[in-house]
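Journal club prep — side note

Before the paper discussion, L.F. wants everyone to see what a predicted structure for a comparable chain looks like in token form. Sequence:
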Amino acid sequence: MGGKGYSLAFDPLDGSSIIDSNFTVATIWGCWPGSTLVGVDGRSMTSAGVTLYGPRTTMTLAVSEAEHSHEFLLTEKGWERVNTYSVIGEGKLHAPGNLRAIKDNAGYAELVQYWQDNTYQLRYTGGMAPDVLQLLVKKKGIFTNPHSKSAPAKLRCLYETIPIAFIVEKAGGGSSDGEGSILDVKVTNLEQKMQVAYGNKKEVERFERMVGVKYV
């Protein structure tokens, strides 16, 4: 360990707005070396994880020194590794968050229309963690949550968007804040928020072209 220590940031309950509906909720965490979390980015992370509390309890974990992302299932015997995720391919599945943004984010309105015109399958619960991790399980698709003036982005960088981006990119997918990888975003304060896209790299690139940062 070298005596330097680590700092952990976590969201204990991702999906608080849907827990009363008995939907799947989650815990998200990210770990960095050192004693401060201000000024860090996703490239300096040592690990990140998401635990889903649904019909099964699972944990998806990514570590800087290991390839891919790995899913563990909680059983009577403890945690057992059940999946390794290394690719998010092409496929017509979308999880469009913050649809209210289409009111004054013309790029997002066009992107949503593109998905409809091209018969994409809608799979969205309102919980970011399960809505993103399904892309690893299904090995396809895209999750988006953009910004607009009337519907600002609400996802926090430190303990939501960056740890999820770390897991997605380790699994062979892409992430973007509209112009580049979320792993390159510097944390300037603990409550910093941002728009996001995760999933198949080509789908994420389409988000950058059509939505970008024009409305941020």
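L.F.'s comment for the group: DSSP finds four helices and eleven strands in the chain. Keep this in mind when we get to the figures.
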